[in-house]
C-alpha cells in the first residue's frame, strides 16, 4: 500500500519535470533558431517466405548477418523439382525434333523408295489381274475349279488395293506435311517451352534470396521445418532507407517543411553528426483529446515526423535513441541540397 502511495507522487513529479523541460526546450529553440526533436532510429523490415511448399534443406545465414541483394539465404529440398525439370526438357527436345522433321519435308531417298514400291505394287497388280483373266475362260471349259478363279480374283483385288495405297503414300511424300500439322507441332512446342520455363521457376522458388541489402533479424524456421508461402522463414531489416521517427509539437508545425536539412546525433557515437532531411510529416495529429476545446489542449497535439538519415557506415541501428536539430525557416536552396549531399 505504501509503495502505491509513493509511486503516484513520483509520476506526478516526473510529469511536472517533463513539462518544465519541454517548455524550456521550446524557449531555447526559439532563441537559437533551431528546432530540437527526440526520437528513435527506425527501418523497414520484411518477412521472407518461400514461394513453394517443401521441407527446408538449409538455412545459410545467422541472426545478425549482413546480406546483399540477391544473396542466397535458404533453400528447400529440390530433388522432385529437378526431376520434373529434366522431364520437361526431354519432352521439349523431342517436340523440337518432331517439328524439324515436319518443316524439312520428305527426303529424296524416301520419295525414291516410295516410287520403287509403287512400281513393284503395279507389277504385282498386273500379274494378279493377268492370272485372273487367264483363269476366267478356263472356268467355262471346266479346266479349273470355281475356287481357283475366286482366289485369283481376290488376289487381283488385293494387289490393286495395295497399289492404290502405295500411290497415295507417294503423293503425300511428294506434297510434304500439311500446314495444319506444322501449326499444331509449333503449338505443342510452345507448350513444351512454357512447361520448361515453369519447371525452372518452381526449382528457383526452392531458393530464398535477399530482396535488398539488410541484416537478418530472426531465423523463424530451421532445417527440417515445413515451409509454406504464408509462413515467414526469416526476418530481414533493410539498411536503407534509415530514418529517425520523432514527433513534432503542433506549435512548431509551421516552422519546418518537407526536404528541410537536419542534423542527427546519437548517444552511441558522441560528437558525431549525421546529415539528413525531413522526409515525411504526418497529415494527422496523434494523442489528440476527444474534445479539444481550449488552447492549452490544442498545444499538446503532435505530428509524426520521419527524418531520413545519411548512414554511410551503417552505424545507425534500429531503436537507437537520437536527437535531431533542424534550422527553422530554411531557404529552399538548402532544402534541395540536403538529399543530394547524402547521395554524395
Report on this model:
Helices cover 47% and strands 26% of the residues. The chain is an alpha+beta fold and 344 residues long. Among the domains are: 32-43 and 240-343, Beta Barrel (Elongation Factor Tu (Ef-tu), domain 3); 83-201, no CATH class. The chain has a 6-stranded antiparallel β-barrel. A hairpin with a 6-residue loop joins β9 and β10 (273-286). α2 (79-104) runs antiparallel to α5 (179-204) and α3 packs antiparallel against α4 (146-175). It starts with a helix and ends with a helix. Residues 1-28 and 289-294 have low confidence and may be disordered.
Gist of the model:
With 344 residues, the chain is of the alpha+beta class. It is built from seven helices and twelve strands. Among the domains are: 116 residues, Beta Barrel (Elongation Factor Tu (Ef-tu), domain 3); 119 residues, no CATH class.
Break the fold down into its secondary structure elements and pairings.
Elements: H1 2-32, E1 34-48, E2 54-59, E3 66-67, E4 72-76, H2 79-104, H3 108-140, H4 146-175, H5 179-204, E5 207-209, E6 214-219, E7 226-227, E8 234-249, E9 261-266, E10 273-286, H6 295-298, E11 302-309, E12 321-327, H7 332-343
Antiparallel strand pairs: 1-8, 1-12, 2-4, 2-7, 3-6, 4-5, 6-8, 8-11, 9-10, 9-12, 10-11
Helix pairs in contact: 2-5, 3-4
Amino acid at each position: 500500500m505504501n509503495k502505491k502511495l509513493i509511486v503516484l507522487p513520483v509520476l506526478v513529479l516526473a510529469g511536472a519535470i517533463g513539462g518544465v523541460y519541454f517548455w524550456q526546450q521550446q524557449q531555447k529553440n526559439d532563441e537559437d533558431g533551431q528546432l530540437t526533436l527526440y526520437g528513435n532510429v527506425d527501418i523497414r523490415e520484411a518477412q521472407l517466405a518461400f514461394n513453394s511448399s517443401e521441407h527446408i534443406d538449409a538455412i545459410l545465414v545467422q541472426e545478425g548477418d549482413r546480406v546483399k541483394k540477391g544473396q542466397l539465404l535458404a533453400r528447400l529440398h529440390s530433388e522432385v523439382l529437378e526431376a520434373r525439370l529434366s522431364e520437361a526438357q526431354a519432352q521439349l527436345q523431342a517436340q523440337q525434333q518432331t517439328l524439324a522433321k515436319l518443316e524439312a519435308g520428305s527426303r529424296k531417298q524416301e520419295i525414291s523408295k516410295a516410287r520403287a514400291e509403287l512400281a513393284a505394287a503395279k507389277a504385282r497388280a498386273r500379274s494378279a489381274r493377268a492370272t485372273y483373266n487367264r483363269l476366267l475362260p478356263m472356268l467355262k471349259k471346266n479346266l479349273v475349279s470355281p475356287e481357283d478363279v475366286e482366289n485369283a480374283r481376290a488376289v487381283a483385288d488385293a494387289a490393286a488395293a495395295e497399289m492404290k495405297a502405295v500411290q497415295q503414300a507417294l503423293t503425300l511424300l511428294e506434297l510434304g506435311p500439311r500446314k495444319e500439322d506444322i501449326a499444331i507441332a509449333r503449338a505443342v512446342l510452345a507448350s513444351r517451352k512454357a512447361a520448361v520455363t515453369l519447371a525452372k521457376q518452381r526449382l528457383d522458388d526452392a531458393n530464398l534470396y535477399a530482396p535488398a541489402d539488410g541484416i537478418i533479424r530472426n531465423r523463424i524456421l530451421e532445417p527440417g521445418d515445413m515451409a509454406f508461402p504464408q509462413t515467414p522463414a526469416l526476418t530481414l531489416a533493410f539498411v536503407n532507407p534509415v530514418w529517425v521517427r520523432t514527433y513534432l509539437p503542433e506549435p512548431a508545425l509551421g516552422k519546418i517543411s518537407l526536404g528541410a536539412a537536419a542534423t542527427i546525433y546519437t548517444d552511441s557515437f558522441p560528437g558525431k553528426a549525421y546529415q539528413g532531411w525531413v522526409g515525411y510529416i504526418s497529415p494527422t495529429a496523434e494523442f489528440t483529446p476527444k474534445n479539444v476545446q481550449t488552447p492549452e489542449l490544442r498545444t499538446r497535439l503532435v505530428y509524426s515526423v520521419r527524418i531520413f538519415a545519411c548512414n554511410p557506415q551503417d552505424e545507425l541501428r534500429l531503436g537507437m535513441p537520437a536527437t535531431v536539430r533542424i534550422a527553422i525557416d530554411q531557404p529552399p536552396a538548402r532544402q534541395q541540397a540536403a538529399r543530394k549531399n547524402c547521395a554524395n
